[in-house]
Amino acid sequence: MIAIAGCGYPEFGFTAGPADATIDSAIVPTEDVAADDGADTTVADDTLDVDDTASVDTLVSDTGVDTVMPDTPSDSTYCMKAPLHVFCSDWDTSTEPTYGWASFNTTGGGTLAVDATAFSTPRSFLASFPAGANASSATLARTFTAPAIDTVARIDFRVRLAVASYSDGVMLVKLQRPSGRGASIWLGSSGLYVEALGSTYKTYPISKGIAAATWYHVRLETSLKISSAVVRVYVDDMTSPLVNVSDASTADDEAVDRELVTGVYASKPTGLAAGFFARIDDLSLDWL
Length: 288
Hints:
Blueprint: E1 15-16, E2 87-89, E3 103-107, E4 111-115, E5 124-129, E6 135-145, E7 153-161, E8 170-176, E9 182-188, E10 191-197, E11 201-205, E12 215-222, E13 229-235, E14 243-248, E15 257-267, E16 276-287
Antiparallel strand pairs: 1-3, 2-16, 3-6, 4-5, 5-16, 6-15, 7-12, 7-16, 8-9, 8-15, 9-10, 10-11, 12-13, 13-14
């Protein structure tokens, strides 16, 4: 399948078909603030420790217990409310985290789960990986056909992060071409930023202070073009973009096929210094 790619990051494949997926045991993060012991810790069946030795940030462990719910879709769920979207995933219809997605990828100990700590009840998507691997991922993907080459996509999602920064950089959401070139939202050492990877590579800081264990509404609007691509990012305030450019490069070729990727992905040749997890909820895609 199509690989996620970033500047200098190796490709990796997706596994097709949610029905064929084997999902690892869900991670149950601990409550409130926990001091790190300075040692890398692998993911156990019931806890996830994030080692912050590569960062001055204090670990805040998120809250949540995985809960199995019956498959009872309701017209009160986010995705069933008007206006309906081109694509929507709120992880409320099924206890399977891959439900509604075409493929998934778990490498370097990455895990996919649903979780009861949600922006809109009863569930959210919980993606995680441990420290140590050179590249780790826990991601979902689905392909779409845009109305035209220069069509701007709008991606809305809610995100709740384990920590407010991640020194190695971790991807959360990406819209890309089959080559892996595209626009994506990342968490880095200074907070959130957007990456534009096309015929050139550029990052744009998102000037919004964030905290761990807090839900944020993030919106990415982008076209995938070799030049003159639109990249706009909003956080909570949907009237004033924190990033607003129209001269980006987000592709090295141009056609109408797109791939939407969400979850967590990070890469470091010497090994990731810390594990990471994030919750994502109420994700939608629309064409502008």
